[in-house]
Amino acid sequence: KVHVDLVNTANPAAPALLERWAIDGRLVGSRLIGSRLVLVTQHAPQLAVDALPANAPQAERDALLARLTAADVLPTLRINGGARQPLVAETDCYVQPKNASTGIDITVFTVVDLSSATPTRVTRCFAGGSEAMYMAPATLYVATTRYAYTATNSLIARLPPNITTDLHKFALDGSVLTYRGSGEAQGHLGWDVQRKSYRMSEWNGDLRVLTYTASVGWGAAGATAGVEPSPAQLTILRERASDQTLQVVSTLPNAQRPATLGKPREQVYGVRFIGSRGYVVTFQRTDPLYVLDLSNPADPRTVGELEVSGYSDYLFPITESLLLGVGHDADARGQVSGVKVALIDLTDPTRPRQVDSRTWGGAPSQSGLDVSRHGIDILTQATRTRVALPLLLRADYTVTPSTGLQRIEIDHAARRLDTSRALIPGALGGTDFYADRSVQIDNRVYYFNAGALTVHDW
To answer: Is the entire prediction scored with pTM above 0.70?
Structure first.
């Protein structure tokens, strides 16, 4: 179930619960656009035919399938514990003809108008599963990999060769969601659900997608990521209204620009699109950061490259010429060590430079971003940026981990990381680290760790 609480905070001293929703399915993602909340959920119906034993006669299966109705397949909604009601009507659902999945999944888009006295909702649905969503102010994209993952004998997640990712575009006008078109990109968005949304971006109406082209990832120690000459591919797509398709404008690498994004056997880690530029991190032994010039959608190109130790899982713009990378350090053999934060100078995009970095803990250490893309808080004030990053630290697996909140201050002019503030201690043993969060308000930081909320001066 996906649970949604709608709370009236007109009187901050006495917030009032308006409605409590329970929606069938799991949460794909949510975004707040102005006063409208956009929820994307995915429902896998439990059908009577699936409960039959393997040796059940085909006639019995056919009879159950023949009795299926839309209500058996579509998700329901309960408000304030009341009776189940349809979340969406079958007349408001789209079907993708090319969907090759053998599973039955229903993706539902729910737009909630939070500005009205009584919350109102508009729903649409899509026959098929969704693995990631991306939103621009007026558009919503969902991505679906056509084929399910399989496992090898070594338990490494494997995808079939030549896999493609389907992409679907919807326009958001107020609370009205309208289908605009579909397209596809070669490759897939990786295995980490927390990073997939960062691999899509819209700019000037075009969708940029960074996919991974190898079939095997780092699902087990020592796994290699495949032997494809370029582990990453950029695809730029543009809506063609005449037939409701997303047409490929260009790709990178290509015949004119064959240089690879990443070396053979590397895997894609951090990806970030910022305006007319894209940034891609790949890794096996070192961290190549590629700077992409996307100002001409018909001719994307790599303009800069930086090789440093370790890798960045996430990239955050601090200023127009400063990029913050958060990931892990590594030695010359590619052996991963502690949590690494790096500051990258992009004043000259053809010559990106790492101007400062810090590392905490040993190989088993984690940052909040290792478990959730929400595991960091960034606040910029004039010429300085403050970063609050939860950490789980230990030298090796034999040591009991400790948790805490690391405060980092970035001086824009000096291009330096100030980590002199003491670690705010959390619970010993790493209890509930997956839920660690922080938020900065004015000159204070609020830290949630192991079920406790503490307040600290910055």
So the answer is: yes
